[in-house]
Please model this.
Amino acid sequence: MTIGYNDYYASYPITVVSPTVTLSQYSLKMGIGDTATLTAVTDPLDYGVTWSSSDPSVASVNGGKVTAYASGNATITAT
Model:
């Protein structure tokens, strides 16, 4: 990045780091009506996490809390 003021300029290198997400568990077996809580740790810390389910009719996720609704498979993703 280059910053300029009048006839003075300075250049600074910028490094963009892609965050990584580590989950507390990578596999869950749940019965209908069961809940489980997953924790996501990010690097760098305090980076926001967005949760999603590949099939919300089987299992939903809200802030890391997973609720099982039906038989089947669902992938819970934290990004």
The two ends are 28 Å apart (CA to CA). Strands lie at 2-5, 8-11, 20-23, 35-37, 40-43, 51-53, 59-62, 65-68, 76-78.
